[in-house]
Amino acid sequence: MATPHLGAEPGDFAPDVLMPGDPRRASRIAETVLDDARLVTDVRGILGYTGTFDGAPVSVLASGMGMPSISIYATELFRFYDVRRIIRIGTAGGMAPHLQVGDVVIANAAHTDSQMTALRIPGIHYSHVPSYALLAGAARAAGVGDPPPTGRRRRARRSKTYVGPVLSSDTFYADREATNAELVAHGTLAVEMEAAALYAVADREGGEALAICTISDLLFADESLPAEERELLFDRSVQLGLAAFASA
Prior knowledge:
With 248 residues, this protein is of the alpha/beta class. It has one domain: 3-Layer(aba) Sandwich (Rossmann fold), CATH 3.40.50.1580. The chain is built from 7 helices and 9 strands. Strands 5-8-7-6-9 form a 5-stranded mixed beta barrel, surrounded by 4 helices. Helix 5 links the parallel strand 7 and strand 8 (190-192). Helix 4 (132-142) crosses helix 7. The longest helix is centred in the C-terminal third of the chain and has 21 residues, at 227-247.
């Protein structure tokens, strides 16, 4: 039976779901990564597909933008469609000075300024963390912690993958330089708009979740990825997510 926001039928979604924000990105993942992908929902233009990857069923569904939107779709997936694991494939603004555009951040925690969390468990500062199994699987696939390659020749820098906290903010256009500096001093790597809500919904619904974000721009420098390069670099986050599903 379809839900208010998803037109799919029972069994249409796989237990594992990749969740980009943009519906067009969901279509691109379905077309270029999944085998035998079929459209299972298009309510309100939020596109969802189910296919296979290396023989295992996998779905991809857009989340829209912001914590309220991803909370709706993640809740319906976990509660009504027997989805067990969701990995957000998104973008983030780099806050830590060692980050460069094109790097990937696997979020091992998500701070937030959202009142959604303040209202979730009154009087408690709820901690937003991902599934350890998914986190470990993605980190292993990325080679996080592996020794750097040896060799005398200097190589051009390639995009790197980091594991660390992110800030999930309700505000995209925010003037908070002092706050950002304190967050960076406390180890925060990047800012985005969905991970905290996804982690909370997964906890509440008994599921598992992870956010893997490509750094699309920097808060401390006038630098951002062109749209076409952004799409290509998303492939790395998708592959890390699929590897996490396979190994967790």
